[in-house]
């Protein structure tokens, strides 16, 4: 028998020497994916956190089809188009008050690159030498060079160390140790005069779904304001209802100086990102002197079809029913995870908005804990798209998920724990 031909496709975050056969998906609808061999999969992580209202939402699909027939691409330098103008205008109405300009890009990583360049360009153009960036321990902001530089140093970026710039890191505000984080930020802002502080509001995603309260976010913004340090909110994952409000910063009643949005911006239909900023950051680049131009772009900046998808997504967010779906999912998630708080095989059972996470107790810790691939393989066999971060299992479904879907998801998590521990939970 001839060996099966290997695909030439190189998949992200996949060790092909260990990877089982790649799942071939042919169709998506709502919270479900359908494979070439006829299986139905519940998308319990919104396909890497991007799908909000569900796969192939008809309103977004229709907008894409209509736009593709009119204008599918145009250089955005010196040109504009209606979908981009509409998206920018609606974003500024929905985003925290005080953000005034919208810069388009293609992905979460590039929106962070844009934010960092905006911050450094601002200080350079007003004649102040402020170049240091402050970050939070365990943070993740993307896989391009600047985004890696402001993320946690680990095996994920060890090979690229020579490319990364140095940063100042403050500790994660673990429960009971929040003041240590605030003190460290205040010290860094006072003593190092950094250009900016970048943070994932309320939840650190790839760092392990680590959650902290809104009052800490509010205090971090206050500290930055006191030292005139630009506050960059990376809401790439936390935006679009994931934390229970449209944007996580709303819960702290803060307006970032620069904000990064992507993932759910198009409802998960097409790649698009934006970086929003205050007027004075734009004004620092506004001059008759061409050398003060903001030098950043990509070929597909503000692609009209992607912008049409974003406009359709933003239309959906204008409907109160959409917000009610978010609240409903948050309630269902809390109910679904409650029983795990008494299961001795799990710890740190937590929820913020529509996101839940829990850690399977094990001797091995970290992303490379051996339980991770075992759990993922188990869930795959159960028709569940769950991608644990080591021993951390998280659920972040589209807002069209049903209570029956969640029962199936959490039933799968219980059964996975049974399979790995060889015993049923002893629940008090």
TrEMBL record:
Substrate binds at residues 48, 140, 263, 297, 387. GO terms for cellular component: cytoplasm. The modification N6-(pyridoxal phosphate)lysine is found at residue 263. The keyword Transferase applies. It is found in: Cytoplasm. Pathway: Cofactor biosynthesis; biotin biosynthesis; 7,8-diaminononanoate from 8-amino-7-oxononanoate (SAM route): step 1/1. Keywords: Amino-acid biosynthesis, Aminotransferase, Arginine biosynthesis, Biotin biosynthesis, Cytoplasm, Pyridoxal phosphate, S-adenosyl-L-methionine, Transferase. SUPFAM superfamilies: PLP-dependent transferases (SSF53383). Homodimer. Catalyzes the transfer of the alpha-amino group from S-adenosyl-L-methionine (SAM) to 7-keto-8-aminopelargonic acid (KAPA) to form 7,8-diaminopelargonic acid (DAPA). It is the only aminotransferase known to utilize SAM as an amino donor. This is Adenosylmethionine-8-amino-7-oxononanoate aminotransferase. The gene is bioA.
